[in-house]
Amino acid sequence: MPRKLMGAAEIRQRLGEISRQRVYQLTHRPDWPAPYDELIQGKVWRRDDVEARIKQHRPDSDDQTP
Prior knowledge:
Elements: E1 5-6, H1 8-14, H2 20-27, E2 37-39, E3 42-46, H3 47-57
Antiparallel strand pairs: 1-3, 2-3
């Protein structure tokens, strides 16, 4: 069953093992979805919000939900 939330590590994996710095850059853009919550380990986002953003900006990227 796919998880409904994504942290920075899942976003990094989803986007093809991009750097942690690149994830930070993306998630701090004004057009990035707002985090669902912030935990001690960092922010988490709704998977559906992240996938919609990816689809909008990388339409050739297939959903690679683990």
